[in-house]
Amino acid sequence: MPELPEVESVRRILVDGTPSLLGAVVWNVDILRASVVDGLSTEQLRRQVEGATVHEVFRHGKYLFFRLSNARGTNFCWMAVHLRMTGRLFLVSEESAIAPHTRFVLHLENRQVLRFDDPRAFGRVWLVSDPAEVISRLGPDALAIGKDMFLQRLSGQRRQLKPLLLDQSFVAGLGNIYVDESLFRARLHPLQSVTGLRGDERERLFAAVHEVLQQAVDCKGANIDGVFEAGNFPVAVYGRNGTPCPVCGSSIVKLRVAQRGTHLCPSCQPMN
Ligand SMILES: [Zn+2]
């Protein structure tokens, strides 16, 4: 499931790749599965997006926002995309065959297409007049947040670390993989409650989240279940139950926390 590093990796490919999506004009829109469009009809989406120019691709947490101007350049709106479980975006030439799980295609004037593939079909595309409509329900971006704000937000919390870090209204962008990796790097137990954390442990948690996400972005995400095949982030604990801890050699164990499979080293991550 794509988390912040995978979504950021998609954004960078679209923006920094050759050709770039920036400046591209949308010729027309093919919607191969209507349920992918959320909160408006496929006709309404087509009317807004066809003829539009893509000016910016912005990410917050696991959400992408494409800033579009209409054909006359007088009006702006944002196309929001959430990849959910298995969504992927590809900027490819129009000769590239539609894949079996393609749900949505923007045909661009430069003979390119932006293709949204999604085998599980939980991903969604919709329009907002301002990304704040979505972001106001979320916490700060987990990569962009600074230490002071992170510690300040932590100080109001009493919850256990795993469910807290998964909560997108606390910080946005972490999911099961990077929460487990961050807690391992911080040497903190997933069931540890915030109230029992010392000051140095709180700082360690911030540093671990930041370092893990930055490293994962640099690695273009993690290749888990072959979904992000270009990702080469080296997971230390996620999905590695039964294998030796890379730090101490103890066996990595898997627990169920907050209804999620949770991986940890019981020696490196003791409970306070
Ligand atoms: Zn260990």
Note the topology.
Layout: H1 4-16, E1 26-31, H2 42-49, E2 53-60, E3 63-69, E4 76-82, E5 88-93, E6 102-108, E7 112-117, E8 124-128, H3 132-135, H4 147-155, H5 161-166, H6 176-186, H7 199-218, E9 253-257, E10 260-264
Antiparallel strand pairs: 1-6, 2-3, 3-4, 4-8, 5-7, 6-7, 9-10
Helix pairs in contact: 1-7, 4-7, 6-7
What features would you describe in this structure?
This protein is α+β, with helices and mostly antiparallel strands and 272 residues long. The protein has 2 domains: 4-135, MutM-like, N-terminal (N-terminal domain of MutM-like DNA repair proteins); 147-264, Helicase, Ruva Protein, domain 3 (Orthogonal Bundle). Helix content is 26%, strand content 23%. The protein is built from 7 helices and 10 strands. The protein has helices spanning 4-16, 42-49, 132-135, 147-155, 161-166, 176-186, 199-218; strands at 26-31, 53-60, 63-69, 76-82, 88-93, 102-108, 112-117, 124-128, 253-257, 260-264. The strands form 3 sheets. The protein has a 4-stranded antiparallel β-sheet with strand order 1-6-7-5, covered by helices on one side. Strands 2-3-4-8 form a 4-stranded antiparallel β-sheet. Helix 1 packs parallel to helix 7 (199-218). It binds zinc ion (ZN). Zinc ion binds next to loops.
